[in-house]
Amino acid sequence: MKKKIILLSISAILLFGALFLLEKLLMPKHVSGIVEGSLIESYYNEKLKHDILFVGDCEVYENFSPVTLWENYGYTSFIRGSAQQLIWQSYYLLEETFEYEKPDVVVFNVLAMKYDTPQKEAYNRMTLDGMAFSKSKLEAINASMLPEEHMIDYIFPFLRYHSRWSSLTKDDFQYMFSKKPLFHNGYYMRVDVKPVEYIPKKKKLSNYEFGEFSYKYLEMMTNLCKENGVELVLIKSPTLYPVWYDEWDQQMIDYAKDHNLMYFNFIDHIEEAGIDFNTDTYDAGLHLNITGAEKMSLYFGEILKEQFDIIDRRNDPVYAEAWIEKSTFYYKMRDQQYHELETYGEIMMYGEVVK
Amino acid sequence: MKKIKLMVFLLMLFMIGCSNEQQETTIKDTTEITLETADSQEVITHDNSVVKEFTLTFRDVQLTMHGNMLPILEVLGEPDFYFEAESCAFQGLDKTFTYGGIEIHTYESHGKDYISSILFLDDTLETNEGVVLFGSLDDIVKVYGETYTEDFSLYTFEGINSKINFLIENDEITSIEYVALYVEDQQE
User: Fold this and answer.
1) Which residue in A36, A217, B14, B18 could disulfide with A87, CB within 3.0 to 4.6 Å?
2) What is the dihedral sign for C-alpha A124, A125, A130, A133?
3) pLDDT of A354 higher than 90
4) pLDDT tens, A24-69?
5) Containing domain of residue A179, as a range?
6) pTM for this model (two decimals)
7) How close does chain B come to A228, measured CA to CA in Å?
8) List of domains in chain B
């Protein structure tokens, strides 16, 4: 009997161990190519508090540089954003983040208001797979799933990715348990330049009203911040495409006014911020490159300084030491990207920087 | 020991089984019979119902949703304006080709560009069925019939893999757009 129990226990341990290893192996690593899939999980490596937390889609993780905010204002910040991050995903990420820390200011980019329903599994995965297991994650999954998706596939991702076993690469083995650093407190760096030449005309819409679901989560986000004593700031990043309609803007102005929030549509501040779409974008006006993100961060930092009493932590040795390390990595990656751009005409190996 | 072997064996079977999964084709099968008419294509489906596929003839070139853009470009030549947008985090570009009167939008799949939508920019063009910008709802119903859906004055006629949208404002058509269905599924 005793022998049987031991054998059964060993069998169970071996089975679960094998499943654990398989999951680690089969999960997409996002360390090359579409690296944005690694953004969300990068937060869990953080050791120190953040004074400012950005949440949203690519319009936050490509347009603001936490290192610039640190160097010029002594503000510590982190961007919890991922590709096409939907508003309910931002809400649950925020809820989850509040379990770890309470920043002074939360900045939410409102472009996501345009999506009132789940959009695409691939984007869902980029946000949700990286979230640590929690009640917030389960609720985020529940809100995000398309009709053909299943909760169980998110809880046990290996059920979703099992077919990857025949297309595994060296990266899958190399980064099974930990990944190389790719981002700068959630900022996705790009140094290349592709100027704006032409922007398609605004297509007329039949209905400009943001959806009920979007408003529901904006309201929840507003309440969550209030309950936690955190200032919520709404922003629209200064990008030229996709279109941000005046009708949408007015709704955000009204919402902010009704809820006593600050709202900044930075499209109206492009000149003031010094952004030049001949030099400060890497994809013809959709996202800013490093020079654009640094200008935007300087401009926004000034607003934050005027509006809030955020601590300048540059004289705190613990923070200063941590941020020196972050800055070093930032400039190494920047220099490497410039070098690749000069040598090959494009960025070849995103993130291949030895820290 | 037998149990451990059995578990390992089952695990291996599971893995091998997974590798044989096939990608599902998501564009609906319209291969039964396709009748090219002077206007839109009519497709007779498996259950013998006739559903239109909305196409546009522009400068003698037939533009079909999900159609390959390359041969079209060869005929139409350089667009007046060109714009490309990399979708966040996904490889492949969404492109916009502007020619007098229309904007052709494409999506990328397996390295090729396919038409995802066509937007009328002015009233110099008409749909193959003769509807123009600034026309009326009556003009639409006369040629497309009454099988449409309406949402905030957007009148939509749906085919198998395409649809055509007419936006009516102040009793005038202010937008005409052909749209490919199931584009997201093709971009995997």
Assistant:
1) A217
2) positive
3) no
4) 899 999 988 889 999 999 999 999 999 999 999 999 999 999 999 9
5) 2-200+210-344
6) 0.87
7) 32
8) 46-186 (2.60.460)
